[in-house]
Amino acid sequence: MNKKKFVRHSIIYFLLILGYVLLYVANLDSILHPDRELNPKSSVNFVYQQF
Amino acid sequence: MDLHSTLPFSSLAFFQFAGLAVLFFLLVKLTLKDRLPYSWVLAAFNASYIVFLFTKPLQLAVLILYLYVAFLALRKWYKSNNVVLPMLLLALPIFGMKTVILFPSEDASDLMLNAQNIFQIAGLSYMVFKVIGLYIDERRNTEKISLLAFFNFTAFVPTLLIGPIDRFRRFEADVAKAYEQISLSFYAKAWDRLILGVLYKYIIAEAIFRFGLSQLHDDGSLLYHVSYMYTYLFYLFFDFAGYSLLAIAFGNFIGLDVPINFDRPFLSVNPKEFWKKWHKSLGDWLGDYFFKPLFKEFTSKKILNPIQRQNLALFLTFTLMGFWNGFELHYILSGMLFGLYSVVHNYYIYRCKKTKKDVFFGNLSSTGVRWLSIAIMIQLVAFSIYLFSGNLF
Amino acid sequence: MFRRILFYHIFPILMAAGAVTLLLIFLPLPKSTKTVALEIQGKQQKTKGLYANLLSGNQAEIDLFASLQREDQITLFGSSEFTESPYAPYHFLPDSLGIPALGIGHAFHQSFSMYCALLSAREHLHESKICIILSPGWFETEGTNIEAFLEFVRPNFLNKIWHDQTISEVHKEYIGAYLDKQYDLINSPSHSINKLRDLYLLHSSQFPGRGEAMIRKKLLANTFIPAPNYAVELVQETRKQRASNEFDYDTRLKKLQQDFNASVTNNQLYVSNTYFSEFIQQQGGKMKKGHVDKIDPAKSVEMSDLMMLLKLLREQRADASFVIQPLNPYHYENLSVNRPLIHEMQKAIESIGFPCLNLYVDQKSQYDAGTLNDIMHLGDYGWLKVNRFLQKTYHE
Hints:
The structure holds three protein chains of three kinds. Chain A is mainly alpha-helical. Chain A is built from two helices and one strand, in the order ααβ.
């Protein structure tokens, strides 16, 4: 068994899990700046039409 | 799944599709291997992606047909040694796309909007480059290239969008042994690349973008430009290298060995080495299908002296790369700058050989030269890539 | 092979997961320094007229809260039929009868966004005079769209809902479920949007949503959500209220109908000339025909939203009323397919004891020409019928 590969994979998985949690589960920006107020907007524009 | 709106590796839907595809290939190998040729299975896979998920299936089908017909016609009737005309003919769709892009959508006429809709096909440039390579390699060959093989090569889903740019014969050889290659060892290799690709593209590049690039505010200062330059360089590397790793991994999962595209480019000591380590498949393509024929052409016509013609061919090659990225000034200048780096480096080698000493580093130790070269290369590359980013103008 | 997977993948994954867990548990999280209580003070400015949306800021929110608090004012919620017609109730009632009235809405403001806005003002709903102008067209959608939701359910409202401990989890989770469904369509979702969504996810058993919500609950525990409180000063009403018998509805109704019918000269559909030529008439003298989708009330998102709206109004004992608008049966050919839907809607409203003016008909012979200006929007004649219903409901 290759120790170097074991360490390399441990680092990769650590960064993957940490990155997933901080980028995609909880927003790191909101963790670091809990005071920041956000202004939600719709990412789609519905066309207001007659029918 | 999102019909007609899923580009490769752009959303969870694509990964679901990829997962199903891997399972599909494995099942076919286990049950129908002897009755169903791999090329048919691959074609069914490519076609199902294009028909159901790709953004513009009809346009892509027309493009592939155009390239196939043009390829066959050129091979049959065009007998001249000069490959410029065939290259231009095959590259016509690129000219269309790069030209219509120059017109901003907001003020474009209906005609222009239609033209943009028709020509702007994701992956078009890569597909055309693959076909040009195929034509140059096979133009003297009489062996039949079937539409099925052509389709699989050009529309190969993992590399459809942004490469790596494969070669037809290598790809065909791989297809021939693909069933065998669907194995645990290939899966292990694919998995290693997949996790690294995901880490690069979806974690590191995303973090650099969110907390670096998008946080920089343009106050016109030198510090802003320098910060943007280095941040963008690393963002582009992790995004692009990550994407390439994902493409290679996906290929491995279905039994195909896609060529590597990035190999520690920031350790390059000169421009030549850089293009062997950064977007390698493009560097190789430009070398084989543009630089070499051009240099040969210059040599046969005895244009300039050998070092001058080498430098001119180098400069034109990288200028072409700039145009290939787009007809906008920042792309062209970035390509020309890369060309200039290569010319200067080429001249430096020539001078060193001629004078039998290192005309730049003098008597510095080889380790010192190596690290200094790496440091200089990173600065040069960063600046050229910064021009490429379009953030400067 | 198994040993290799164990050594190179399983162990590293377990170690990495453990290390990340420890890191996140013991890492000190920054805390908010802001004061949670947010006093929104202001004076009521509108006792008549329309807010097409609530994007203009605190004043629109103050006027809505004021309208709901006033005993003499009617608050109307509707959608695309809300125009500047002098017969629209928020103009007609104040101008002609001296009854304060405020309209809130434009196209796509539907049951769910009305429900959320009213939920945020829950404490003021008791005996509040609220009229919902229902449109059958809403039931052909997948419920309120996210753009309308964000226009009408302002950040202050969601913050208030989040902090209000008296609002039951049933209501909060219902909003959370909507936000979860629409989440990918929201750019920079606010903390209250995230927390309401997570409240729903924590109680759902779906993987990985629940696990992710648990992580967020831990990591985003300190995010700041202000708790708004509306301190509204009501304006003195100076208009003199008129009794119902002081206005001759019958004569005016007759005249409005006659005027409308006389104005329609290019079609026999009882649709205004301009609407007909713009939207219905096709080349070669042909006419576009209308068809409605058959709606199964049990599967309709809009119906479910309406039920939650009714539940809220009933719980808070609001003095609510409803108007079911018609569709023009001269244009739509299959209106009878939704007879069960309309019936169920009316039954749900009336079973709680809320008055309901049902103008919906599915046969040409039953249609009162002029009720609609076109194929689905109330005209002056239709609005006057609504005004009579409102005056009868609230002022007799």
